Amino acid sequence: MLNRDYLGFVAKPVSVPVEAGQIRLFNKAIGEKRPVYNDETAARAAGHRSLLAPPTFGNCLQQLATDVGITHEDVGLDFRYLLHGEESFTYHGPIYAGDTITLQTEITDMYDKKNGALEFMVTVTRATNQLGELVQERRMVTVMRHPQGGQS
Amino acid sequence: MTLNYEDIMVGDELPELVFGPVSRHILALYCGGSGDHNPIHVDIDFAKKAGVGDVFAHGMLSMAVLGRLLSEWVPQEQIREFGVRFTAITPVNSTITCHGKVTQKFEQDDEQRLRLDLSTTIDDGTVTLAGTAVVAV
Predict the structure, then answer these.
(1) Which helix (H) or strand (E) holds B8?
(2) What number is the ipTM of this complex?
(3) Contact, B20 vs B26, CB < 8 A?
(4) Residue of A nearest to B135 (CA)
(5) Cβ contacts of A18 on chain B, cutoff 8 Å
(6) Whole-number pLDDT of residue A152
(7) Between B82 and which of A96, A130, B125, B133 could a Cys-Cys bridge form, CB atoms 3.0 to 4.6 Å apart?
(8) Strand partners, A125
(9) What is the distance in angstroms between the CA of the first residue and the CA of the last residue of chain B?
(10) How far is CA A104 from the centre of its chain?
């Protein structure tokens, strides 16, 4: 079960380096072959300061952060029963290879449906680059399913 | 490629993008590339123990491919919002098709913008992601 004590929890800010190799491996997985995403020279020629991180890469930065001050266990999330409910981004600026992105996540809602058979957690993460620019806000809904139905 | 706001009509569809089949190899690449190391997407033993029978694709893999549909239509810097709901699981070896359609033209923050309906489907037509985006043109 979700630990409702964490509703409203604001995690400490965590800084994550944006690595060119990580972007390229991500691109390989998703079939993104265009030079502006994979080749530094082409990216600069197109007016970017380095490789452009694809639209959903902000999610990966969160996954790659080593210490976000809170664990799945703390909140009561069990990998066996996790589903991703929703994901949305509001973009204010690009993320580039070589950037250092600071993420701050807040747990903004926790609720359940079907007599507790499904539990939901909503988080909002603000991503700021090394220049102090807010580059994106990311909202995620995580779903925990309880195969035995509602539990106390 | 440059899109002209005046030439775009509500109801216009984006060119479809087809990705896959999503092999176990692609899931392994995405596991490493995304940093999402949840074993349910790559470890069949873990998936069986969790009662789901086999591994299934990361929802975010489909969203990333849907992001390609968008950024191949407008430069990425012109994407203002992009959000989805995950409506069904994508089994391993599915082929993902991305769809987009213009639903609204409007002006906001001194920009001409389009709202799009987006979705991904798999082989049997099941909608796996449903969402929207706002882009500036």
Answers:
(1) none
(2) 0.96
(3) yes
(4) A91
(5) none
(6) 38
(7) B133
(8) A105, A138
(9) 11
(10) 10
Neighbours of A60 (CB within 10 A): 24
- Transcribe A30-46 into DSSP letters: HT---HHHH-HHHHHHT
Contact flag A30-B86 (C-beta cutoff 8 Å): no
Chain B contact for A132, CB < 8 A? no
Report, in angstroms and rounded to the nearest whole number, the Rg of chain A calculated over CA atoms: 17
State how far the Cα of A19 lies from the Cα of B60, in Å rounded to an integer. Answer: 19
Res. A150: pLDDT tops 80: no
Helices (H), chain B: 24-34, 44-49, 59-71
A17 touches chain B (CB under 8 A): no
Distance CA A49, CA A96 (A): 7
Instruction: Give me the count of residues in chain A.
Output: 152
Binary contact (B86, A32; C-beta < 8 A): no
Contact B34 A91 (CB under 8 A): no
Q: For residue B37, which residues of chain A lie inside 8 Å, CB to CB?
A: 63
Judging contacts by C-beta atoms under 8 Å, the chain A residues touching residue B70 are 55
DSSP chain A: ---GGGTT-BPPPEEEE--HHHHHHHHHHHT---HHHH-HHHHHHTT-SSPBPPTTHHHHHHHH-S--S--HHHHT--GGGEEEEEEEEEESS--BTT-EEEEEEEEEEEEEEGGGTEEEEEEEEEEE-TTS-EEEEEEEEEEEE-TTS---
- Nearest CA-CA distance, residue B15 and chain A, Å: 16
Tell if the pTM clears 0.95, that is, is over it.
no
**pLDDT tens for residues A33-72?**
999 999 999 999 999 999 999 999 999 998 887 666 678 8
